[in-house]
Amino acid sequence: MYRNLLLLRLKMCIFLIGFICFFGGVTAQNSPFYKEIQAFKKKDSIQTPIKNAILLIGSSSFKNWVDVQNYFPLFPIMNRGFGGSTLPDVIQFANDVIFPYEPKQILIYCGENDLASADSVTATMVFNRFKQLFQIIRDRLPKVSVAYISMKPSPSRERLLPKMIEGNKLIKKYLGKKKNTAFIDVYSKMFDANGEVMKDIFLKDNLHMNSKGYVIWQKIIAPYLLK
Q: Which of 92, 104, 163, 177 has its CA 20 to 30 A from that of 127?
């Protein structure tokens, strides 16, 4: 009887694992970013990615930085930013865009799209999502340096600036108590002398940056990169 009970429990465990894997795969395939993730995998199958690099993860501010390696020629850079991703999206695809690369440092730019997705999303919610992602990384890669790049201001999202300020503040305070981390403030460097968000560092959509914007980021980020 005891043996039968053990067999029953084993079968239930196998069923649950299969159930989770199946529906997890279905959920991933339904994601708007599924094709981008598959493109990363195809690229990696053609050319083995370098290990021990600086890994960029997050949303389109990273995705659009296609020539990021040229900005940091002395550092091996791996860019895995995708779409208009939110923190839950990065969490969902962590096994695809983080852990296979065995990075020495992870730079995160994400959270801005979370706030833009719905008025009901608060700075505290973004902070809690970031903590979840950070803990996932820490559990699997406890010695890897993690840096968060502050949510940036943009002309098209000026209504969100108060939430961004609050969210950045919460994340900065949290990382200040964690070892081997950094909070990189790009937010405060993207205003002009009149306290207005710079207009000439953005594309026509007034959301994504042009090369002038990335030069600003380059100067701020460079001192934090691990050699």
A: 104
Residue 105 shares a structural domain with residue 126: yes
- Nearest 5°: phi and psi at 77? -115, 135
6 and 39 co-located in one domain: no
DSSP the chain: -HHHHHHHHHHHHHHHHHHHHHHHHHHHHHSTTHHHHHHHHHHHHHSPPPSS-EEEEESHHHHT-TTHHHH-TTS-EEEEE-TT--HHHHHHTHHHHTGGG--SEEEEE-SHHHHHH-TT--HHHHHHHHHHHHHHHHHH-TTSEEEEEPPPP-GGGGGGHHHHHHHHHHHHHHHTTSTTEEEE--GGGSB-TTSPBPSTTB-TTSSSB-HHHHHHHHHHHGGG---
The total of structural domains in the chain comes to 2
Task: Look up the domain containing 5 and give its range.
Answer: 1-30
CATH of the domain at 76: 3.40.50.1110
pLDDT reported for residue 64: 97
Residues 142-153 have pLDDT tens digits of 999 999 999 999
pTM of the model: 0.87
Residues shown for the chain: 227
